[in-house]
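Researcher: I'm preparing a figure for a lab meeting and need a structural model of a single chain. I don't have an experimental structure, so a prediction will have to do for now. The sequence is pasted below. Please return the structure as tokens so I can convert it later.
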Amino acid sequence: MVLKWISRLGVAFSAAALATAGGLLPASATQENAPDDALATNASQIATCLQSARSISGLFLFDQSGSLSSNDPDEVRYEGLETALLSLSRLQHASEATGDSLDIEVAVSAFDGDYYPARDVVGWTQLNDGEDADRGEIIDQIVTTTAERTQPEGGTNFEAALEGAAEDLADRGTRGNCRVLFWFTDGEFERAEDSVEAARERMCREDGLLDEMRAAGITIIGLQLNMEDLDSDDLLSMATGSSGTQDCGTVPVPSDWANGAFLHADDTAGLRRLFGSLGNIIEGCTPQGERGAEIDPGVGRLNVTLETLEQTEQVELTAPDGTVITAGPDGTVTESGYTAVAHSDESYHSVTVTLPPGAASGTWSVSSVPETEEEFTDWCVYPGVSLQHAGGDEPTAGQTAHIAFDVVDTHGGQASFADYEDVTLTAAAHGEDGHPREATAEMTDDGVVVAVDTEDTDARIQVRVSAQPTTISGLHLTPVGAEEGIALALSSVFPSVRPLDELDLGSAVRQDPATAELTLSGSPDGPTEVCLGEPETLTVPEEVSGDQLTVETGCIGLDTGETRTVEVSVTPGAPTVGNGEADLPVRLSAAEGSEAAGTSVDVDLPVIWRYEDPRDVGAFFTVLTGLMLLSVLPLYLILVAVKAATAKYTTARLQGETIELVIGPDGPRREPAAPNGLLLDDSRLVPVPADPGGFTHNGVRLGVEKKLLNPFSMPEFYAEPAATGQRILTSEQPPTADGSRGRATPGLGFFAAVLIDEHTLAGDEDEIRATAVVLVTDTHLWSADLDRLLRDTVPWSTIAQWRSQAKQSATPAAAASYTAGSTPPDDAGPSPGASLTWRG
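Model: Understood. Here is the structure written out token by token.
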């Protein structure tokens, strides 16, 4: 939020930089900020990535350790999550007024002594999908599901938490995407695989886990509740690099890595405000500090936050030109060109106002009902301009390229830097060889021109420019910037491929393909050749890890002046949300008979696309309404038609194996053991015939509860033993309390079910025998991946609880006679009142 309010809340920042994966991060000019602007500089660096981003992926890593039962008994953290999601859903793209948009996707994972990945809590979901009402439904669904699946129990293992979060964010590292980890905890590092000290050393050494995440461009924002009760500063140092008393990772954090931020609240009231501040922090709202409501020229948006003791009914803002804006507790209101967006609860009321072009600067005033003391009111501001690539003719390779960027206001109109006291420019560029090119930036009347010294073989360069505005009162605003791939015109002896800056395939909606064309043009100087290689560095969401670009590879001969087109496409293997990207190697060979004959230029053409899986919040009811209007069938048949499309398993390319296991405190082992020591090897998988509507395979029944009469419910996919007298563990969500059922997922990318006989659980052997049934559709999982996933399915702690329960429910004589492989008496089994708490 802003400085005075944050200081009361107990919020600390590092000099954080949010990096775009694969992007350029030129060092910013050193700024001599006044003391009350220190936070502004730090927060503005977090917003750097969003200046040229297409999307942002935010993973909420939620502590679910047992201490939250006492530290947050009213579950305020879930209200805070809702506030944070609402704030993030309203993030504005710097160029949104000109038609570009920012895709905002979030997921929730959890940890205690173990890590629970996003697919088991809340998978990746596009937050700004549809109208405001749809977004509200999406957010409600995320919060409700999170609360159901993150109930407190267990210890606090930071190493497991960060390793898992890094894996969940790994497939989000595409060009133009910002990755942020919002890490919430109320505790400290107290549990590890071996010892906390050893785990801390692994995580915080140079080239350790924290260095890897920062170098990969992942920003960590630590959110701490009850910091005063802690004996260590682990979250602070892990988020920012140093707590002052301990360092974590390379310190200082290199300028081309993503740094982080740290916030803390001393109580649950502060926790609400802490979560509510995340939108302003991510966007880089610069605190006004002692300037308060005195707004300088050059400000395009402002935020005012009131700390309250009860829910306010309204906030009234009066602009310098006399315009009065009345904002309710939530929602959007417009008045005389001003647009205000409000959100609040009983602890704070926040209003963000976008100013109209040419709005007067000066002093604003604010009042609320009920009234709030002025000392509990804080202001922060955003710059009123952004930079947009101006386009124009292609520069010529081997000469100084002049790349123009327009200055535009928050409404997309032409603007300038004239309202600012000073603007500091920085620029950077590199060629396809990865080496930097000399780049300088210069201000013009209506924008910025970046001059880049190019080489003869530069068919494409990557350019980044940043402008740091300073207002007339000396306030350093968030830097505005842009990053572009620029195609250059080679000598006429070479063929051309367009586009060569970037090929955008557009959106692949559900399982519909995304497609675009390349245009190949021959040289006027003679026959030439364009060669397209196999796509490289493919990055896609985990759910579609088998996807590949479809393109005609090989060499294509072009006659003099000939033009041909090549189609490039991708077809999703399953509906999902996220970005996809790959590099398409392109080789341009000079014309036969020219002086350059026999030479070629190599370029890696970036290919990007977006996966979209529109939420059924609106689509479901649209389809339902349409069917009701067009059909005379009874209501329950309409519901059957709507749900039938989703209530199926993916069985294409389904493979599997059934394995006999021996499980003990040290984990499971295969019997007989495989030569390579793995539980599961991809070479042993065999095709499994299956019915998408449900099937039984080697003792495991996979079914679907369609819940047809409830239009607000989704189908439930489950697995259960086909025979009586067995309990089941699955690789998905927890089974029922008595182990009679486990969750399944329709995709079956990796699914494992472990069957354990009841009489085996009641025996006295140190180890127990079990049968694992594994089903896989993801053909790109390696043996090591399969082995790890299967081991994660068999937590000894759960089995130990089941053994205790089974023994208590059996007669002493019967329990003493149980051995592995023996037949239990008819009355052996779980007692009617037996219960189980699942932590697998």
